[in-house]
Amino acid sequence: MTAGRATVGRMMLHICCAPDATVPMRELRAEGWEVSGFFYGSNIHPREEYLRRLAALHTLRDCESVPVVEAPYLPRGWFDRMAGLMEEPEGGSRCTACFALQLEAAALEARRRGYGRLCSSLTTSPHKDVPRILRLGEEICGWHGLDWEPRVWRKNDGFLRSLKLSREMGLYRQNYCGCLPSLLGRGARSRPAAAVSP
Fold first, then answer.
1. From CA 21, how far away is CA 4, in angstroms rounded?
2. With the CA atoms of 68, 51, 80 and 116 taken in that order, what torsion angle do they form, in degrees rounded to the nearest 10?
3. What is the Cα Rg of the chain in Å?
C-alpha cells in the first residue's frame, strides 16, 4: 500500500495457494485495503506437499509483509467432510464441497478477527469454475454477515501476472489441485501408498 494512503477497509483474503494469491494480494493493497490472508490446507495431500505449499506461503507473506492466518492441518476432517464424494470426477460435486469448506473456514476466521469483507484467490486459476466460486462466496458470506468481494483475478492477464510474480519470488508452483483424487488423477511419478493415505 502506498505510504500515507488511508485504508478503505479490512479484507480477509482466502488463499488457495501462494502463487494464486500474488495478484490479489498486490492489487487489494494497492487499492488501499488492509489485507490479511487465510490459508486452509487440510485438502492438500500428502503432508509433504502441504509443507511445500506452506513454505511458499511463508515466502509470499514475507515478500509482501501481509499477515497470514494458517488453519490447522487436519486432513482427516477433510476426508470426513468429503465422504461419499471421493469418486466424483474432477470439477464435480467434491470440488463444490471443498470450495465451500474452505470459504466457510475463511468466513469464520474473518468474523473472529473483525474483518467485514471476504475475497478468494480461487478465481486466479484458469482451471476453476468461477461462477460456482462466486455463488458460494456470496452465499457463505451472507450466512455470516460479511460482504463478499466477487473478484475474478484471472481477468486482465491475472493468471499470467501471477506466473511472473511467482517466478520473481521463487514460489513453488504445484501441478495438481491438492486433494488425493486430483493427485491420483495426475498420475504423479512417485507416490508411495503410505504417503497418500488419509
1. 24
2. 10
3. 16
- 58-78 pLDDT, tens per residue? 999 999 999 999 999 999 999
**Which residue ranges make up each domain of the chain?**
9-196
The DSSP symbol for 126 reads T
For residue 186, name the pLDDT band (cuts at 50, 70, 90).
Answer: low
What one-letter code names the amino acid at 63?
C
Q: Which residues contact 118 (CB under 8 A, 6 or more apart)?
A: 11, 12, 13, 14, 103, 106, 107, 110, 137, 141, 146, 147, 148, 149
Q: What angle do CA 191, 197, 198 make, to 5 degrees?
A: 140
CATH of the domain spanning 9-196, picked from 3.40.50.620, 3.30.70.60, 3.30.420.280, 1.10.760.10: 3.40.50.620
Q: How far apart are CA 88 and CA 60, in angstroms?
A: 33
Q: What crossing angle do the helices spanning 47-64 and 158-169 adopt, rounded to 10°?
A: 90
- Return the closest-CA partner of residue 78 out of 107, 56, 104: 104
